[in-house]
Write a structure and sequence with these properties.
Layout lengths: L1 H17 L2 E7 L11 E4 L5 E3 L5 E7 L3 E5 L6 E4 L15 E4 L2 E4 L6 H7 L6 E4 L2 E4 L8 E4 L10 H8 L4 E3 L13 E2 L6 E2 L15 E3 L13 E4 L2 E3 L11 E7 L2 H4 L10 E6 L12 H6 L9 H5 L4 H8 L3 H12 L6 H14 L3 H10 L8 H13 L3 H14 L4 H13 L3 H16 L10 H15 L7 H4 L11 E8 L5 E7 L5 E6 L1 H14 L3 E6 L6 E10 L6 E11 L5 E9 L5 E8 L4 E2 L2
Parallel strand pairs: 16-19
Antiparallel strand pairs: 1-4, 2-3, 2-5, 5-6, 7-8, 9-10, 11-18, 12-15, 13-14, 16-17, 18-19, 20-23, 20-25, 21-22, 21-24, 23-28, 24-27, 25-26
């Protein structure tokens, strides 16, 4: 009964948040001019209104509601209301699809015959056993790779999947060897193992090679992916396939795109079109890279970006002494008393640049009201503490975020990682099991596509490096720890504001690059899913096959308000080894629509990106 009341208190804030009605204001534009008469409605029979001549509107909604923006000729936007949502000023995009030199306004449903004719020139089409699938219009996010993206360094399909796609777990090697099938999964941190034989179909046999693209590892049951090669179905990975013959590869990991495969597709499907099995003719080129190549212009350095910061920032940096800097702070303190961003800028200046910890802490303490009731601001402050290795303060900040957002999946991962930084490994493991329990009881939602792979990797890395601090020696042998198949540099990007939109560009030492897009225009479903599950994170893996200097750049589009977004990047060196090290960097994004350099890595290789 006591545990029941603890859970009730824990979930209580979520129920109260759902009843919190508030007014949301903003301005709708197309990126250049305001849009009038945009239909704005709260889905599910809620309030509705239209934007006025200046694009402005206001509407009442509750946390968890979805606000829909509709305007003829523009793509419909759907934005989920969060606990901190007060201002939403979205930018609507034209509903235009480009095919070579033909521009089609709107988008009519195409027949399979139309798609068949278009297959040669549209690299976003993939042939499945059940017809042609368009990655741009299909439900869910489809990860795609074309022949120009495939380098001949990989021995077989297992190596290709292992090195080029984040969140995918590959068991076995190209020679036919591998680990035996899993016999169980951890059900508690004491090492009790529960048989998972019932969770596997009759086809989960003793084959040594397996690929897992949905939520796997020690938290969730495993189900191997199915392979569809030129319309033929294979239960085992086609290691016999020459990867130089692959024309297109698509990863289907949501139920809407795999339902036709029945129960066999429960673990997702990897679709492969080969050169021999694809039609010839037409002019093929890597359209994705042509569309995303924004490095033709200059990339702003961090120093150039900071040169555009507010006047107070420039004056603090220009102050000749600590006394002069304090005078500058006092000069602007009253003017920016309600700005958490001014407070964090001033705190970082005095702590990092002046070495005055006492005065820096006093700045935050005297403005605690800006953070105590706002999880977005509190998370940004936690990022800053973490980057300064102030683990105690970061931990307290993450605890406050958990108090305000107990229904957010990332609250558990953040708190677990902060316990880990404090050396309290058993508490860290308990946070993952706490999350697991709440998911199993359907008290919070779960997403196995984007968030769970990151969560699983964090949890298994904790078990791999800190078993001694989690279980007793007598139970250690029975503790199931998933084998880490990646060793190299791991980058984890996290951002404090769920409305943030941006592109990340990874440029390798040979000047080839990949762009990961996080915007409503490119992946509205992903952003909606982030809010439903409660996470803002993505991981990227860099192995050691291509040494040299990597560049990581960003193009920031804003967060539907005038406030900046804070991005935390955790860089793990020698990841998955006993010599693993990590470094945390925090960046404030406020300059929009400009290519900016975040940092460089003098090491590394092939980025395995989504």
């Amino acid at each position: 009964m006591k545990y029941f009341w603890i859970l009730l208190m824990f979930i209580g804030p979520l129920a109260m948040a759902q009843q919190d009605q508030k007014t949301i204001r903003g301005t709708v534009s197309d990126g250049r001019v305001p849009l009038s008469d945009v239909a704005i409605t709260v889905e599910g029979g809620g309030a509705s209104t239209f934007s006025d001549a200046s694009g402005a509107y206001s509407i009442t909604a509750r946390t968890g509601d979805v606000v829909r923006y509709t305007y003829q000729g523009m793509k419909t936007l759907r934005i989920r209301v969060e606990d901190v949502t007060r201002i939403l000023s979205p930018t609507m995009a034209m509903d235009v699809a480009e095919l070579e030199e033909v521009v089609v306004v709107g988008s009519n449903r195409k027949s399979q015959r139309d798609l068949d004719r278009e297959y040669v020139i549209n690299e976003r089409l993939i042939r499945t056993a059940y017809g042609i699938l368009n990655a741009d219009t299909a439900p869910g996010n489809i990860r795609f790779m074309n022949e120009d993206d495939i380098t001949p360094i990989y021995l077989c399909i297992l190596d290709l999947l292992r090195n080029r796609f984040a969140g995918i777990r590959v068991v076995g090697d190209c020679a036919g060897g591998g680990a035996p099938p899993s016999t169980g999964q951890i059900t508690n941190i004491q090492g009790v193992v529960q048989s998972d034989a019932d969770s596997f179909s009759e086809f989960e046999d003793l084959a040594p090679q397996r690929v897992y693209i949905r939520g796997t590892s020690s938290i969730f049951n495993q189900r191997a992916a199915l392979f569809d090669v030129d319309g033929q179905i294979f239960l085992d990975p086609p290691i016999w396939l020459d990867i130089n013959q692959i024309k297109r590869l698509a990863i289907l990991n949501n139920f809407a795109t795999t339902t036709q495969y029945g129960n066999l597709g429960a673990g997702g499907v990897i679709v492969i079109n080969t050169l021999a099995g694809s039609p010839k003719g037409g002019r093929l080129k890597d359209q994705a890279r042509l569309r995303n190549n924004f490095q033709t212009g200059p990339i702003l350095s961090r120093a150039s970006v900071e040169a555009g910061e507010p006047t107070y920032y420039q004056e603090l940096n220009a102050a000749a002494s600590a006394t002069d800097a304090m005078a500058v702070y006092e000069k602007y303190a009253s003017r920016y008393a309600s700005s958490p961003y001014f407070v964090m800028d001033a705190y970082r200046h005095f702590y990092e640049d002046r070495g005055d910890q006492a005065f820096a802490d006093e700045i935050v303490s005297s403005h605690s009201y800006l953070f105590s009731k706002n999880p977005v601001n509190m998370k940004a402050l936690a990022y800053i503490y973490e980057s300064q290795s102030r683990t105690d303060k970061a931990h307290e900040a993450y605890k406050e975020v958990m108090r305000m957002r107990p229904n957010y999946g990332q609250s558990y991962m953040d708190l677990a990682n902060s316990y880990r930084d404090l050396g309290r490994y058993d508490n860290a493991a308990a946070q993952y099991k706490r999350y697991d329990y709440l998911v199993e009881e359907n008290l919070i939602p779960v997403d196995t596509t984007d968030f769970v792979p990151i969560l699983n990797r964090e949890y298994n890395n904790l078990l791999f490096l800190h078993q001694a601090g989690i279980v007793s020696p007598s139970n250690r042998e029975s503790l199931y720890v998933e084998e880490e198949t990646f060793q190299g540099t791991r980058l984890v990007f996290e951002w404090n504001d769920g409305e943030a939109e941006f592109d990340l560009q990874f440029v390798n030492p040979e000047n080839q690059y990949h762009i990961w897009k996080h915007s409503l225009a490119s992946d509205a479903e992903r952003i909606m899913r982030e809010k439903e599950i409660g996470f803002n994170a993505e991981e990227f893996l860099i192995d050691s096959s291509l040494p040299g200097t990597w560049e990581i750049n960003v193009r920031y589009y804003g967060n539907k308000s005038l406030s900046p977004t804070y991005v935390k990047v955790t860089i793990y060196d020698n990841y998955g080894t006993r010599s693993q090290r990590k470094e945390v960097r925090v960046f404030k994004l406020s300059l929009k629509d400009t290519n900016q350099r975040l940092f460089t890595l003098t090491k590394g290789a092939t980025v395995a990106l989504n």
